[in-house]
Inverse folding.
């Protein structure tokens, strides 16, 4: 229960638990039931109340943070953020609340099942009200070793466009993959990790390239800085290069008082060795759930934050 509201998580419902919980929290923020600076319940507490895995709530909080709606600070918990993202949410949900209340009342009066109406409404939008044809088509190019799901979600959120994802590994083995994808796109996006490589690949194509970057959430850097000197720390992503990038973010922050290793979930032998030999393991959001099951006492989330300038570049280019 939050401020008198009882959140629900129904495994039989048409939408996943993660989406159910996130949207309910966004409603509470959107209608002002939880205001800027107020704390959300600790992840374990909310997970226990809802009867779900703690990792599900942790992921929800991370997604809310990535959307600019909350801040996560070690030792201080998860707070509703103050800023444009929260303001926009409150504006949109305010008008939505009145409209949906009327729809719910009409559905009840007509004897319609509300859950069935919700699912049917989703299909209705797909069939009759979809406006994807007007969205800018964006070619997203990245490798499989970095946390590409994070970058993809950020590009989708900032651009409102329709993404076509192509991996550099696939382009290397079959250049036609890029040729076909580029024909569909009006804009290309890649990360700083591969900017020069992608720029060369697109040199003969009339596509504007936007390069984006990310950094580590300050809360995780503060957490790592407190780790005892000489400890063994592993950074894990989808591939070893992704783990090395995470480690570089820590070193760039001037934190160098322990032994560092990197691993990827694409190399199980190397992954297990990193887990066995490390005192702490920091995992990107793409692999966190998997690693938390393997080593629950060692693994912590290494949350990323898209650079503010990158958000602005995407929004401007996608207009």
């Amino acid at each position: 229960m939050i401020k008198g509201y009882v959140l629900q998580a129904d495994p039989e419902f048409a939408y996943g638990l993660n989406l159910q919980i996130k949207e309910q929290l966004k409603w509470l923020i959107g209608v002002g039931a939880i205001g800027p600076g107020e704390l959300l319940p600790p992840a374990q507490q909310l997970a226990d109340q809802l009867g779900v895995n703690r990792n599900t709530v942790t992921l929800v909080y991370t997604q809310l943070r990535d959307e600019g709606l909350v801040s996560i600070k070690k030792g201080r918990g998860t707070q509703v953020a103050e800023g444009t993202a929260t303001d926009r949410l409150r504006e949109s949900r305010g008008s939505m609340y009145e409209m949906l209340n009327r729809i719910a009342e009409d559905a009840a009066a007509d004897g319609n099942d509300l859950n069935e109406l919700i699912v049917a409404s989703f299909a209705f939008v797909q069939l009759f009200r979809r406006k994807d044809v007007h969205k800018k088509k964006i070619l997203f190019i990245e490798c499989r070793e970095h946390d590409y799901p994070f970058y993809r979600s950020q590009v989708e959120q900032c651009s409102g466009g329709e993404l076509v994802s192509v991996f550099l590994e696939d382009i290397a083995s079959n250049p036609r993959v890029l040729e076909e994808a580029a024909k569909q796109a009006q804009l290309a996006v890649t990360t700083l990790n591969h900017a020069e490589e992608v720029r060369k690949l697109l040199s003969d194509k009339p596509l504007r390239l936007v390069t984006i970057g990310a950094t580590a959430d300050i809360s995780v850097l503060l957490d790592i800085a407190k780790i005892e000197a000489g400890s063994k720390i592993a950074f894990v992503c989808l591939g070893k290069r992704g783990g090395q990038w995470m480690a570089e973010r820590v070193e760039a922050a001037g934190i160098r008082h322990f032994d560092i290793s990197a691993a990827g979930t694409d190399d199980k032998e190397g992954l297990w060795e990193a887990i066995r030999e490390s005192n702490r393991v920091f995992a990107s959001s793409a692999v966190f759930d998997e690693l938390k099951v393997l080593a629950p006492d060692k693994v912590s989330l290494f949350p990323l934050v898209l650079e503010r300038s990158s958000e602005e570049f995407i929004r401007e280019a996608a207009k």
